[in-house]
Amino acid sequence: MTKRLVVVTAGLGKPSSTRLLADRLAAATARHAGVDVQVIELRELANDIAQNMVTGFPSPRLGDAVEAVTSADGLIAVTPVFTGSYSGLFKSFFDVIDKDALTGLPVLVAATGGTARHSLVLEHAMRPLFAYLRAVVVPTAVYAASEDWASGGEGALASRVDRAAAELAALLGTRPGRPASTADPVFPGERAAEDATEVVPFAQQLAALAVER
């Protein structure tokens, strides 16, 4: 079965170097594995995301985007760097997704910026974000500065893109089944162990300690 790869790009311009990097990563992943690619441009959902943040209810367009991400076999997430971190639009989109909905999802993180000195955003901001969401982030993250495009995106950038794409392709299809609810996933044998364990209320435990004294 062909795997579903969703690409989330938070570039604001048109054309956008962020979208260009996202497209290269998607194409490289497709070379390593058969995938159906869906691209989500967050700039087109900016108003919907803002409304969801204040009302708690997604528009149909935003709901479709969230469903695409949470049901995907793999995700490529690309953001421009703003003030040393991911953009507010990028963060807001992932804020409206349930914190358990990306559990086990293979993710490739990438970013674009004006200079190479912003490249640490991948490690101090993006990787921790998806680790918190319990996604599986591939080892190689990709950062593209303005100078990387001077040679048409070839050389070192092309090598990083291909390596990261290969890592993501290798993880496609490995995501465990999504839990029926937003609670933590239950693995085989875990439920039986929980049912066999008697839960003692905390107040009762405190009372027992008082008697022992």
Automatic annotation (TrEMBL):
Annotated ranges, domain NADPH-dependent FMN reductase-like: 4-149
Gene3D superfamilies: 3.40.50.360
Pfam families noted in UniProt: FMN_red (PF03358)
InterPro entries associated with the record: CE1759_FMN_reduct (IPR023932), Flavoprotein-like_sf (IPR029039), FMN_Rdtase-like_dom (IPR005025), NAD(P)H-dep_FMN_reductase (IPR051814)
MF (Gene Ontology): oxidoreductase activity
KW tRNA-binding (keyword) present: no
Keywords associated with the record: Flavoprotein, FMN, Oxidoreductase
Flavoprotein keyword on record: yes
PANTHER family: FMN REDUCTASE (NADPH)
Protein's recorded name: Putative oxidoreductase
